[in-house]
Amino acid sequence: MANPRVSIIMGSDSDLEIMSEAAKSLSEFGISHEIQVLSAHRSPELLTQFCKNLKKRGVQIVIAGAGGAAHLAGVVAAHTTLPVIGVPVNSSALNGLDALLSTVQMPSGIPVATVAIGKAGAANAGILAAQILGLHSKPLQEKLLRYKNKLTRSVIEKNNKLKKGK
Amino acid sequence: MANPRVSIIMGSDSDLEIMSEAAKSLSEFGISHEIQVLSAHRSPELLTQFCKNLKKRGVQIVIAGAGGAAHLAGVVAAHTTLPVIGVPVNSSALNGLDALLSTVQMPSGIPVATVAIGKAGAANAGILAAQILGLHSKPLQEKLLRYKNKLTRSVIEKNNKLKKGK
Amino acid sequence: MANPRVSIIMGSDSDLEIMSEAAKSLSEFGISHEIQVLSAHRSPELLTQFCKNLKKRGVQIVIAGAGGAAHLAGVVAAHTTLPVIGVPVNSSALNGLDALLSTVQMPSGIPVATVAIGKAGAANAGILAAQILGLHSKPLQEKLLRYKNKLTRSVIEKNNKLKKGK
Amino acid sequence: MANPRVSIIMGSDSDLEIMSEAAKSLSEFGISHEIQVLSAHRSPELLTQFCKNLKKRGVQIVIAGAGGAAHLAGVVAAHTTLPVIGVPVNSSALNGLDALLSTVQMPSGIPVATVAIGKAGAANAGILAAQILGLHSKPLQEKLLRYKNKLTRSVIEKNNKLKKGK
Amino acid sequence: MANPRVSIIMGSDSDLEIMSEAAKSLSEFGISHEIQVLSAHRSPELLTQFCKNLKKRGVQIVIAGAGGAAHLAGVVAAHTTLPVIGVPVNSSALNGLDALLSTVQMPSGIPVATVAIGKAGAANAGILAAQILGLHSKPLQEKLLRYKNKLTRSVIEKNNKLKKGK
Amino acid sequence: MANPRVSIIMGSDSDLEIMSEAAKSLSEFGISHEIQVLSAHRSPELLTQFCKNLKKRGVQIVIAGAGGAAHLAGVVAAHTTLPVIGVPVNSSALNGLDALLSTVQMPSGIPVATVAIGKAGAANAGILAAQILGLHSKPLQEKLLRYKNKLTRSVIEKNNKLKKGK
Amino acid sequence: MANPRVSIIMGSDSDLEIMSEAAKSLSEFGISHEIQVLSAHRSPELLTQFCKNLKKRGVQIVIAGAGGAAHLAGVVAAHTTLPVIGVPVNSSALNGLDALLSTVQMPSGIPVATVAIGKAGAANAGILAAQILGLHSKPLQEKLLRYKNKLTRSVIEKNNKLKKGK
Amino acid sequence: MANPRVSIIMGSDSDLEIMSEAAKSLSEFGISHEIQVLSAHRSPELLTQFCKNLKKRGVQIVIAGAGGAAHLAGVVAAHTTLPVIGVPVNSSALNGLDALLSTVQMPSGIPVATVAIGKAGAANAGILAAQILGLHSKPLQEKLLRYKNKLTRSVIEKNNKLKKGK
Q: Which of C125, C156, F162, G83 is the 20 to 30 A CA-CA neighbour of G96?
């Protein structure tokens, strides 16, 4: 996509299944985005380059997903003043507890907006980006309200099904 | 403060010492804000009312800090499409692990932008709010860049002290 | 069921397999009940409405099951003075530890009667409801005693099988 | 107290400071109660005797607090069909995580209504008992509603103080 | 088996696969034993009866395996002065961490000799019983030495295989 | 003490305060014992020598306490067929959870009889040794019964004090 | 292999699948190595013998992998002044958390260079050995640089694939 | 110190008390070293610069200590092929568990040699560096052997004191 407003990066291509949930959320809200592999450990210079070009390229928010000693979101946050959203990926023996703590426990001065471990977190990363961009976009705010209503309606519909199923 | 752009709420007045770090960060960036106690459990209707009035009052971001079964940020996120930043407070026997998991592990559809446990997290919540608001404010972006430079300079100064101390 | 005395709610329809264990327990004790999806996050207003109508509808106990940042039981407890039983559901990467802590670590003033993670907990939620209602019902108390005896007999029978199996 | 409706027991007299919070809650709601040390491990026969006499003595609810391998609530629940409320006490090196898991993870058939670790949990145990007994007592229900309102008012008052303090 | 010297009990028949490892170890050392289901929660009186008869029946050691809020070993230890070996069973959502803490964190005065979670622990429970009984049995001590040598030889054999496999 | 039947060892002299609880228990039961520092890491050859001499010296049980990566009990168990009791010491940042897992999670073939973290565990290690030695000593068994009765009486006395205090 | 510079040992042959990742890394860097089973618990004397012969045989680094109460690396470190790399193996119910803490939490004086749990850790153990040996080998340092470049290129290639796949 | 062979870096000057243990170890072995603050988050470009100059400056090993989301060691490891030793610092609410997992759980390809949390770990980091450098230095190897003997002698001395103290 040309001129992505949100850039999704992930530490490994094995995180793609989880991180594509973030892309789905952004697509649902019509927000331009890109997705790529960028490792804080395997490609540190590519990552620094990526961070330095973010503003020039018009990127406004970075969503970074990684597992294990998940440094990706924190390293991006160290290089930019854009909001960085971190998604802990449950790819290690410790079920993502390591990725959660490595992502959220940032020191004073360099926040990472951390969401839940795994797919729910990735989907929410996209929605959080929409909420942030929605602060200056009426149409986006309306989409967010419609999305919230859809969530409520889906609860009602599930209950209707549940009653019929009985 | 009149017309606060960021509203800081906390589940208990005993969280004030921690959550005032968020206020300090916002003051440093010149962002109007308010701070108050609002409990998801002790004052649910006040909280709902608070959520419904957010947009009318011009609030753009909510920072919510709570300990234990920390539902505050999640409940606000359920009621609004504004970005909600959650600060886990380490006020229980489990040192904030309970508050962290209760804040971050939100289901798909309702994100909470979670930061670190305790004071570092609260300070970062204010900075994250500044980053979000900075997306549409050149002056704020410049302040954020200056802040980032200040962080780097403080590292240099500490090393100078360290060398002299030897 | 008309006039349910116990209302079972769950944060997501994917919790149904677990939470239907609560319904089974209540059926075994002949206690009228209902079961529905109600999310603290996806349908907060439906949930508030549900809480406000509980007493009018004659509901005496609420059983609430949820996973992850499980706020459901706590939010209901915030709105009602009826006893609320919380069932942590193991639907996240952290195997229900998050749901347990989010459900049980309630602040002073708003208790949630928390039971075990998953199916055993859901079954026990129904039995706990029977114990509570049994305080003012002789027949229910007798059923509870018979159930307790049945548990003991099943231990004896299992040992008989074990001996024959040898 | 003669004819206690709620019996508070604790595994050790060192738990008294925490467990007296349960007594305070019950006193606040005017519910007759007793408090004593009874260990599942140091006095198993006294405990069995205690359980067998509960109904004769008119006790309706047991609140049991213990630390470490906290078996007290579970053992009482094994002997009676009355509701048993378990309070995990944070007296060991593991800060009460052991007591929480030992209390809440009961097998199917024998529920323990578990509340939070430590003082908040003990206070809530008393309130939960009041909620249970309130199901058949109008005056108690009114007291519970007044208590809930008092919680909300205390939030308002704390905010007033907070504003004046500024 | 007539006149068992070691009695293996388990909280549920679903623990049989794990606990039969203890029986296998005892058989390997030629120690008479029995195995049965006895629940601290489902059959408390049977369990008390079992404990009271232990010495009369000539039982010298009890091996108790249970999962979740694993009270079985602790309750037996409360009733007898015989050595009690506890095996935490990983049958709950928390993978046996709950069973481990519920078994090992006993208060001062009532020890439970706790072994590892699951099959390795159950096998070791049988060996530990052999070591205890071996203190007064030369033949048993010789068997234990032969077993230890067998362990070492199996390491040597595995290395021989490994080398050939290359 | 000449001819100790129980040998208490600890990984560091900083563990002395905790491990002397084991010595106190053994003294209470009149069991000869010795106590010394022996590290699996700082003095591996002394430790091997110690293990090889155990039987010659008439030692029957080893109690080994250590913190952090607590290998002491396991290494002794590897060298001897005598029963080895492990006491996890809470001397590290992780409050003894590391010592507990390092002590209890032994592989199949080499049991360590693990007791609770810290002082309660050390005291229980001494009592467990008494229970083991009591299998072949009537007087010791009587002392153990008296000790158990004393535990029960102390519960009764604490309740008497509690009543008077009111 | 004759004259191995790195010796890989593992506590059990069931760790072979994981530990062969270390061998693969070493092969990739052309470093001579051997691999064998050696248990701190099942073959303590073989292990001591192994440690004493290390220097004579020209071994420079030991890589030790084990699960559960993983004492292997620590015991080797106690016997030698060569660098010892520890690989926690996730073979127990606790997913390797026990092996991690048992390996890394060594007391002051006896370091174990611990890497990640499981396969990634085993592969990294081999690379770490190459880095250490590379300090005195230009060719090895060049291989390490090439390996690092390969890691970066693989990131680029994965992104090319990702773009084509779209 | 001119021409340091080991460079100690730490994420914050508040880590100095802990990290100076590493310097003490290196001084004890006569290894030239330097110590400074360098944050992966507050000074990312200084850190990259530091990494790029390591080899030119003759540094052979980096020791990196950090707390919370401890990315420091991992980021250095991403930039260099020198061995990197990571020290988890217990400066957050989670007592260093977060720092441990953030440091040790590195992905395949980029090892960090992780030592224990806190002071013991920092001291061991220095010793591990000595062991690595000792591979090509006879005098250093002799110092390491003397150090090991000193550890054993200190155990003997402590026991002598212990005996006299009795």
A: G83
